[in-house]
Amino acid sequence: MAAAIEAAKRGAEVLVIDANEKAGGQLFKQIHKFFGSSTHGAGIRGIDIGKDLLKEAEDLGVEVWLNSVAIGLFREMTVAVEIGTDDVEKKVEMIEAEKLVIACGASENVVRFKGWTLPGIMGAGAAQTMINANRVLPGKKVLMIGTGNVGLIVSYQLMQAGADVVALVEAAPKIGGYVVHASKITRAGVPIYTRHTILEARGEGRVKEAVICEVDEKWQPVPGTEKVLEVDTIAIAAGLKPLAELAIMHGCKSKFDPILGGWAPVHDENMESTCPGIYVVGDVTGVEEANTALEEGRLAGVAIAESLGKITPEDASVIKADIWQRLDGLRSGPHGEARMKAKARQLESFKEVTNA
Predict the structure, then answer these.
(1) Closest Cα to residue 292, out of 313, 264, 268, 271?
(2) How far apart are the first and last CA of the chain?
(3) What is the CATH number of domain 110-238?
(4) Residue 236's pLDDT is what?
(5) Side-chain half-sphere CA neighbours of 167 within 13 A
(6) What is the CATH number of domain 2-105+241-355?
(7) How distant, in Å, are the alpha carbons of 63, 67, 82, 232 from that of 89?
(8) Is the separation of the CB atoms in 158 and 135 below 8 Å?
(9) Can you tell me the distance from the alpha carbon of 349 to that of 353, in angstroms, rounded to the nearest whole number?
(10) What is the enclosing helix (H) or strand (E) of 59?
(11) Where are the beta strands (DSSP E) in the chain?
(12) Does 2-105+241-355 match 110-238 in CATH topology?
């Protein structure tokens, strides 16, 4: 949406394709208030930021196709789009464009353990969708696996929705997310078990119990430390990986980086991939924060407007420099330093590939 807005406000004709019933991505599941600077919506709930983006895009004449899936890229700049939710009425349209932006986001990682396919076991993102988008409680007694920001935020939102969060489990020696999120949970009396993992889910027809245990320095279960928790839901927040298949299948060069979640397409300072005219933004280039995705989208939108002759290189340079300054600010500090280095490696990889 950010890329669409920046390109459209400078005169580009823009079409947004979204598989969901509403455009705006994860923002419409984020009912908590953002924090940081006023530039990045501090004190505003994610859902309201999403509404503002949709309104701005609509006012600028951005066309949005919902319930539409990009199923492939063909020739240089043609996208195959499957439209509709009814198998009988589905159709495929071939869309030609001068520039393409791939902003597919990320998908949740899976943790496999005995009984992991029982009903009631789901990704934390699925649980968040159920409570915040669909207003459905996934269960009454929930165990959360993982204490990154997703695990912490969704746990608190489950509590707000009326669920009893029995515990959070983290294999690492300390929580992975921000302390401000963890504090809200511990103040409510919910235990966070660090250096623990899940061994087994038990139940007939649905999960009824979870068996957790301590892990040693080599991340192996410690015999005799098992704890049995009565739960009807297990939510897994074990990190995300970029949904980069669309870019990779088209030939955009990629690089594996564990800091960014796995394989992701490399790009230049304008977010342009190794396939000229195809830009990659947000978590598809490496898993970060919502505000980082917004800024990368803005960067691509301005760069596209420049390449289409809608804005002068001089004006574009000033705007892009300002966006990069904000991106560097978002990636500063203990939580962002590793990602800043990883993104720098992406830029270097792009130069290596294109020079070769």
Answers:
(1) 271
(2) 33
(3) 3.50.50.60
(4) 98
(5) 19
(6) 3.50.50.60
(7) 21, 12, 10, 38
(8) no
(9) 6
(10) helix 46-59
(11) 15-17, 63-65, 68-74, 78-83, 91-96, 100-102, 106-108, 121-123, 141-145, 164-170, 192-194, 196-202, 209-214, 227-230, 233-236, 240-242, 254-257, 262-265, 278-280
(12) yes
| Residues 137/131, Cβ–Cβ less than 8 Å | yes
Look up residue 153 and give its amino acid: I
Say if residue 356's pLDDT is above 60.
no
| Residues present in the chain in total | 356
| Structure confidence by residue, pLDDT tens digits, 81-112 | 999 887 778 899 999 999 999 999 999 999 99
pLDDT tens per residue across span 162-219: 999 999 999 999 999 989 999 999 999 999 999 999 999 999 999 999 999 999 999 9
| Burial status of residue 224 (CB atoms within 10 A of its CB: 0-12, 13-18, 19 or more) | exposed
81, amino acid identity: V
Angle of helix 149-160 versus helix 179-187 axis, rounded to 10? 40
Task: Report the C-alpha gap between 129 and 181 in whole angstroms.
Answer: 19
Q: 131, 158 in Cβ contact below 8 A?
A: yes
Amino acid at 91: K
| Predicted structure pTM score | 0.90
38: Cβ–Cβ under 8 A, 6 or more apart, which residues? none
Q: pLDDT tens digits for 332-342?
A: 866 678 888 88
Q: Which residues of 127-163 are buried (b: 16+ CB within 10 A; e: fewer)?
A: bbbbbbeeeeebbebbbbbbbbbbbbbbbbbbbebeb
Rounded CA separation 35/37 (Å):
7
Q: Three-state SS across 213-252? A: EEECCCCCECCCCCEEEECCEEEECCCEEECCHHHHHCCC
In the chain, domain spans: 2-105+241-355, 110-238
- 3-state SS class at 95: strand
CB–CB of 6/297 below 8 Å? yes
